[in-house]
Amino acid sequence: xTNEEIFALMDRFEAGRCTAFKLSTKDVTLELKKExxxxxxxxxxxxxxxxxxxxxxxxxxxxxxxxTYYSAxxxxxxxxxxxxxxxxxxxxxxxxEAMKMMSEVPAPCDLVVEELLRTDGELVGFGDPILRYRAx
Length: 136
Fold this sequence. Notes:
It is a single chain. The chain starts with a helix and ends with a strand. The longest helix is centred in the first third of the chain and has 13 residues. By secondary structure, it is mainly β. The protein is elongated, with a radius of gyration of 17 Å. It has a 5-stranded antiparallel sheet with strand order 3-4-11-9-6, with no helix packed on it. About 5% of the residues have low confidence. Helices cover 10% and strands 37% of the residues.
């Protein structure tokens, strides 16, 4: 399977309504999943219970994949969103890079950004909270 064929499959998957796809051949296994902007609860705090007795409250936009977080399209560009910004459903809130491919992360609903939880260039795991928001 050539890179062009893999990229074509990825493009069709991204444009389609399917949320999971797996292809296995004798040489390669390709597995794709979509879960963009799924609101999740924050993970349990890593601090000791004495330091923090409760989990942070609110809704979170989570990382749809393992990759590098970017707040802007380029280093010399302004960030997609800042704390306090009002954002429309589907508007890009950040970029995630994985395997030299950039993916936009859209807002799951109309919202107000309350807190950005990541810094540019930070490695983020699947499902990790990216930003905290309040739905409007």
